[in-house]
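TASK: fixed-backbone design
INPUT:
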């Protein structure tokens, strides 16, 4: 990160901390049953500033904060809904986070929520009144914005789930080898259409992927092609350098090799050039059903940003628990 960019983050943090001095003496309102903007206005009026300050601090420590937090939110919402069940730990290794597909979730994402939760609870007016699920949703918005992505209003009022199980996690998440039909089916099961799926995949612009995601595509694609013919040869050579045979498959590489630390539309431009790291990425461009949207977002960054806000807002509503459902966890890693 260059010094000017870092200075902007520090300035942003200071401004937000100054606004957090505002307080409210309003009484606690009855808990609504649906998500809403300003849910905590009379409960914890400074919640967004408190979360943001913690996220800025964590982000300045490591850029990994951004992709890790965003991916954590996605994996949480798609499995049992946006209820922070992904954060629950199990003494016998039987929680969602223990499933093999979730073992690749970076600890920086979990730590971001922990730090933000501590910041919120440090305000006596807010202690144990804000759900871990809402903190994760807010932190996700903030890391997107801190990497150059849009700032958007986050609907709040989620409650934390009490159940987290290792079983069937894979059945709810898209896999790197999926074709478009499989991707559409996975997203559709969560109430999201192709139109929403494409911009959500655009979040890979700041993502990282492990070498095992693309190893078959660059070394042993088929009996006739060692390299996937949809893969740009120069990019394939670069991937081979970053992921040589015999390397630890858990080594991660940038999914956008051009602007890996900027939330922009470069991901879609890369797909046009055959530079999608996984099969499920590149199929967005090779399949005619999604190609037009890829071309639109590659040529019009504002269209992508607008579509992304709509899509992630809708994603944040998946099977949420509100009202008297669930709980407000005292510790995000265990039920009360």
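OUTPUT:
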């Amino acid at each position: 990160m260059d010094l000017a960019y870092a200075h902007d983050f520090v300035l942003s943090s200071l401004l937000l901390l100054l606004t957090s001095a505002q307080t409210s003496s309003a009484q606690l309102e009855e808990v609504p049953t649906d998500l809403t903007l300003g849910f905590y206005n009379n409960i914890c009026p400074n919640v967004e500033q408190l979360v943001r300050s913690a996220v800025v601090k964590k982000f300045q420590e490591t850029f990994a904060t951004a992709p890790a937090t965003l991916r954590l939110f996605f994996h949480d919402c798609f499995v049992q809904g946006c209820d922070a069940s992904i954060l629950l730990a199990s003494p016998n290794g039987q929680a969602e986070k223990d499933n093999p597909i979730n073992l690749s979730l970076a600890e920086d994402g979990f730590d971001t929520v922990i730090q933000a939760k501590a910041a919120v609870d440090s305000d006596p007016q807010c202690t144990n009144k804000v759900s871990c699920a809402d903190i994760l949703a807010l932190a996700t918005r903030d890391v997107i914005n801190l990497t150059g992505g849009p700032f958007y209003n986050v609907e709040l009022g989620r409650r934390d789930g009490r159940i987290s199980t290792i079983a069937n996690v894979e059945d709810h998440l898209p896999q790197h080898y999926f074709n478009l039909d499989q991707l559409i089916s996975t997203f559709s099961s969560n109430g999201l259409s192709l139109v929403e799926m494409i911009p959500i995949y655009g979040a890979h612009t700041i993502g990282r992927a492990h070498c095992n995601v693309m190893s078959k595509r660059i070394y042993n694609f088929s009996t006739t092609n060692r390299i996937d013919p949809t893969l740009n040869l120069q990019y394939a050579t670069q991937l081979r350098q970053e992921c040589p045979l015999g390397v630890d498959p858990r080594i991660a590489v940038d999914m956008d090799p051009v602007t890996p630390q900027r939330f922009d539309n470069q991901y879609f431009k890369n797909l046009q050039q055959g530079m999608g790291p996984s099969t499920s990425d590149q199929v967005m461009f090779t399949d005619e059903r999604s190609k037009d949207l890829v071309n639109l977002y590659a040529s019009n960054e504002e269209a992508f940003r607008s579509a992304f806000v709509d899509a992630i807002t809708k994603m944040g509503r998946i099977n949420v628990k509100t009202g008297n459902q669930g709980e407000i966890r005292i510790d995000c890693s265990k039920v009360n």
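COMMENT: The mean pLDDT is 90.
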